[in-house]
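Q: Please design a sequence for this.
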């Protein structure tokens, strides 16, 4: 009986423990398989990420290279354009120089011929307009064909013209005995008259209106150039000023007593031309 019990006891113990070990092994195998699968997926993801990063880096490098190439192309294009512009400028300057020399030569020949020609025509309408002198024409030639820049520009052509204009302004100021900043260049007499008359009257009108004073008063003559007379009439018509036209004698001279009697405390401007452009009369202006 003891032998039988001893033989059965180990057998029962082995049969009882073996299923538990198998379960543990099975769970471990499943866990290991699952972990291996997850590790494999993560590894594959990491490989793909590295590959994408490499591709992205190459794309960035190529984009940068392309950007640098475009920038260099732009710079090269600008250099070519500037070189072409410089070449054209040199060509224009050469052409202008030849034209200047040719025109200057013709002017001198024509002037010499005119001075030596017998019975030449005499021009007597200098009050209306005058021809320029030879000296003025020769002095202006470079600015007609060679030094032709805009004086307000920052480039070399403009700066050369600016220097010349400033020099001319300084010369005129010295002749007139005034400041350089008082010299204003215009396109002609009509623009100058409008600028001076309107400037004075409009300023005086604002100033006197602010001080509650009568409107400004202007004096001129009925034989003035239309560039003066018409603008004065216009300012009167729009109510900006009062206007008085002084008397003129039969020989075209303004009567001084008429001017004196026309002056009032509101008079801001008296505009009388020195030499009449139609009849040639010279006014007694000192």
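A: Design:
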């Amino acid at each position: 009986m003891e032998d039988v019990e001893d033989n059965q006891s180990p057998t029962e113990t082995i049969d009882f423990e073996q299923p538990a070990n198998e379960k543990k092994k099975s769970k471990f195998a499943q866990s290991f398989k699952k972990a291996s699968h997850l590790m494999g997926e993560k590894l594959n993801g990491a490989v793909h990420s590295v590959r994408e990063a490499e591709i992205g880096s190459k794309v960035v490098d190529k984009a940068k290279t392309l950007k640098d190439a475009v920038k260099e192309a732009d710079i090269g294009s600008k250099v070519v354009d500037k070189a072409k512009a410089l070449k054209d400028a040199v060509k224009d300057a050469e052409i202008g120089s030849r034209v200047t020399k040719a025109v200057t030569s013709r002017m001198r020949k024509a002037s010499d011929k005119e001075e030596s020609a017998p019975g030449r025509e005499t021009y007597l309408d200098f009050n209306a307009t005058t021809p320029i002198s030879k000296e003025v024409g020769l002095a202006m030639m470079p600015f007609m064909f060679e030094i032709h820049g805009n004086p307000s520009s920052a480039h070399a052509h403009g700066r050369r013209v600016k220097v010349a204009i400033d020099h001319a302004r300084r010369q005129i100021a010295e002749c007139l005995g005034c400041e350089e900043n008082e010299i204003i260049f215009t396109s002609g007499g009509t623009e100058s008259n409008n600028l001076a008359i309107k400037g004075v009257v409009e300023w005086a009108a604002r100033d006197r209106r602010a001080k509650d004073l009568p409107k400004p008063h202007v004096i001129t003559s009925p034989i003035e150039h239309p560039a003066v007379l018409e603008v004065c009439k216009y300012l009167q018509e729009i109510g900006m000023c009062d206007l008085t036209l002084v008397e003129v004698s039969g020989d075209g001279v303004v009567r001084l007593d008429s001017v004196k009697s026309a002056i009032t405390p509101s008079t801001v401007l008296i505009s009388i031309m020195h030499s009449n452009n139609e009849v040639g009369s010279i006014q007694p202006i000192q």
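Q: Thanks. Anything notable?
A: The two ends are 167 Å apart (CA to CA). DSSP finds six helices and three strands in the chain.
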